[in-house]
Amino acid sequence: MISKEDLEILEPRAFRNLPSLRTIDITQTNLKEIPKDVSNSISSITYMWMSRNKIDFIESGAFTNLESLQIIGLSENALSYWNRECFENCTNLRTINFNNNKSSVIPIRAFAALPRLDIISLDDYEITTIQLDAVQNLENLSYLGLFHNRLTVIDKRAFPNDMHIDYLNIQCNYPNYLPDKFLKKFSVKNISLDSYNPWKCPCLQRIHDWLYFTNAYLQF
């Protein structure tokens, strides 16, 4: 018998010979990384939970061809690196929960291969940089959570033009302004900002005007 404390490594193709597998739940173990092809491209996998482990690395191709995958949870790990090649052909993925990890960067075109993504939760992270086109091609995105990170600048080039989103949470970061070109890209229903940030007064007026014209609700 393998206890939770004993589990540190998953071998590639660890779930072979399980063609009808729907859920993988590996929580609160000593698992440290996720290798390429660990799920063996099993098309039936719908839910994957790997929270509260010690994962600091996801190899490119780790979740390739999981065509039925809808939710992946990797919160409360030590994840320092991942990129879009981790999720090749996960065309039905709707929710990513990477809360409470260690990466400082949202990579270039991080979610480009995930057209149905609805929820991205990256709260309690250590993000300082959102790279070019990081949040492109996400027409169904309704929630983007960046609560409690280390952002000082939010680069407009990370986001597409005419982006519609229900809820944007950027509380507990460190920017003192939001660029006009950033605001013009967005149509939101709710946005959470932080009243303790050193906001510049002219920026607050622009945010006020933008909220008025987009009919958005501000949580401050």
Automatic annotation (TrEMBL):
It comes from the Eukaryota. It holds the Pfam family LRR_8. It is found in: Membrane. GO terms for cellular component: membrane. Coiled coil: none annotated. Its main location: membrane. One of its GO terms (biological process) is cell adhesion. InterPro entries: AMIGO, Leu-rich_rpt, Leu-rich_rpt_typical-subtyp, LRR_5, LRR_dom_sf. Keywords: Cell adhesion, Glycoprotein, Immunoglobulin domain, Leucine-rich repeat, Membrane, Repeat, Transmembrane, Transmembrane helix. It is a single-pass type I membrane protein. The keyword Membrane applies. Belongs to the immunoglobulin superfamily. AMIGO family. This is Uncharacterized protein.
